[in-house]
Write a structure and sequence with these properties.
The chain has 501 residues and is an all-beta fold. The protein contains one helix and 37 strands.
Length: 501
């Protein structure tokens, strides 16, 4: 993260959490002058971390890398995904003889293509490592990597997906579990040259769970550690909130939640906020459960509403939820969508108290159930991207809870061929729409979807990827927050060359 001038260091301080960088205008030779208005410039460097995808010998994992075309981006650059060190016992990136077999431990899992075209790679087996990714120049703005795993049988069988994310120092995961039948891991990945020291705290229905084994965990440099949550405590609870804090260094974190009977998926981190949107509940969801937690000292009272295709409605019998401070609270919403697209909107009934929340969503019934998670997410903002999509299995949900919005959706070229396509949609205030997203003409391979609000209120989005296997409605859901492709950089005419090191 070091830069040789103070101007660059100052301009990148706010970006440390997403490991993205942007350059200032060069200092003027004429000396000091009043700084101008901030400019939106493409980031120059981005880092992403992908957790080890599965501990199953019959897992097949696909990675898709995509950088949207960004005006003003550099003309050159590089991007790569390298295995974290110490991840593969046999020295290969592909585990025990699967699709990735034969790759050396330091060989990239894929070679990213030029902005506008997805690149894909595959691995298989239980020893597929975590990946550490870096992109600079033209590859950096909005770089998105999706990890999608198919597990044919056993604990967590089904479709598991996660967006690779940047390193940070704090994470909240409402919706994990330590109950019998659950095998949940928190994956910690350290991208840096020095060790990271991490605490993992658990909170259940009655408050903090005693878990001394979660204190002072060391994650070696350029390495990843999966930690089984049930080994941190003797308490067995179906719903816990996981809090990851970093004492020194930084890590990437994600929770893999696996159920013996109901499949599983990745649980992405949720940020505390007073009002929350959880977008894109599948219309055929058979069971939806809200898990909420307030990390502060005050209780929270929230109004529960569903943004349906026709507007905001209040679920009968679940008008509000009281979240006690420091305690994980659950609400069983059943088949709340009743065959229509929907998103959950949580707003304070009185005073604003920060809350983290996620939905556990089930499709199917009996032994044909499959599970996914929807964390509360930030709005799309300027732009968001979903990297791995198929012509038949993709559903894009758009929600405008606070005002009608116009949204442009662009389908990239396919990874093996096809012509980009664009559509524009109007999402009415208070509604959720499963839009008829465009697909590339002549599509071959996988493609990316880029969402760009054009006008109106804030837009929230998620992508569901579904693939029925053996009668099981396998699916995974990823929310689409801002891709941080650009950053506001103050203009300056001041000569800071004397401060160069």
């Amino acid at each position: 993260m070091n830069r040789t001038t103070l101007s660059l260091i100052a301009g990148t301080t706010a970006l440390a959490a997403v490991t993205a960088f942007a350059a200032f205008d060069p200092p003027a030779a004429s000396g000091a002058a009043a700084p101008g208005a901030a400019a939106q410039l493409p980031v120059e460097r981005t880092g992403l971390l992908c957790p080890a995808p599965s501990m199953s010998d019959i897992a097949d994992t696909a990675y898709t890398s995509f950088t949207p075309v960004t005006k003003g981006a550099a003309g050159s650059g590089t991007a790569q995904l390298q295995p974290a060190t110490g991840q593969s016992a046999d020295g290969t990136a592909g585990g025990k003889g699967g699709k990735g077999a034969g790759k050396k431990a330091d060989e990239p899992v894929l070679a990213p293509k030029a902005p506008g075209t997805p690149a894909t790679g595959e691995t298989s087996g239980a020893e597929t490592p975590a990946l550490i990714g870096t992109a600079d120049g033209r590859f950096a703005p909005g770089w998105t990597v999706q990890e999608t795993t198919e597990v044919a049988a056993g604990t967590g069988r089904g479709l598991l997906g996660v967006n690779c994310t940047g390193a940070d120092t704090e994470f909240w995961f409402p919706g994990a579990g330590t109950a019998t039948g659950r095998t949940d891991y928190v994956h910690l990945t350290n991208p840096d040259d020095s060790a990271a020291v991490v605490d993992v705290e658990l909170y259940g229905k009655d408050g903090a769970i005693k878990s001394p084994l979660g204190e002072n965990l060391t994650v070696k440099p350029h390495a990843s550690e999966p930690i089984l949550l049930s080994t941190l405590t003797d308490e067995r609870q179906p719903d816990v909130t996981v809090h990851v804090t970093v004492r020194s260094g930084r890590v990437g974190a994600a929770v893999q939640a696996l159920d013996d009977k109901a499949g599983g998926d990745w649980l992405a981190a949720a940020d505390p906020a007073g009002s929350l949107v959880l977008p894109g509940i599948p219309k055929d969801a058979t069971d939806v459960r809200l898990i909420a937690f307030t990390p502060g000292d005050d209780d929270a009272d929230l109004k529960i509403r569903l943004a349906s295709p026709d507007g905001l409605i209040t679920p009968a019998g679940n008008e509000t939820v009281h979240v006690k401070s420091g305690m994980t609270t659950t609400v069983d919403l059943g088949d709340v969508t009743r065959g229509e697209a929907g998103s959950l909107v949580l707003t304070p009934t009185d005073r604003t108290v920060p809350v983290v929340a996620a939905l556990q969503v089930v499709r199917g019934k009996g032994d044909k159930r499959e599970t996914a998670f929807i964390p509360a997410t930030a709005a799309v903002g300027t732009r968001a991207t979903s990297a791995d999509n198929s012509a038949k299995g993709t559903t894009l949900a758009l929600t405008a809870p606070d005002g009608t919005a116009t949204v442009k959706v662009t389908a990239s070229a396919g990874s093996e061929g096809g012509t980009p396509a664009t559509k524009t949609f109007t999402i009415k205030s208070g509604t959720t729409q499963n839009v008829d997203a465009p697909a590339p003409a002549g599509l071959k391979g996988t493609y990316a979807l880029t969402v760009e609000p054009l006008s109106g209120g804030p837009v929230y989005a998620s992508r569901t990827l579904a693939a029925t296997e053996g009668g099981v409605p396998a699916f995974t859901i990823q929310t689409l927050p801002n891709d941080h492709g650009t950053v506001a950089v103050p203009r300056t005419k001041e000569d800071l060359s004397v401060l160069q090191r």
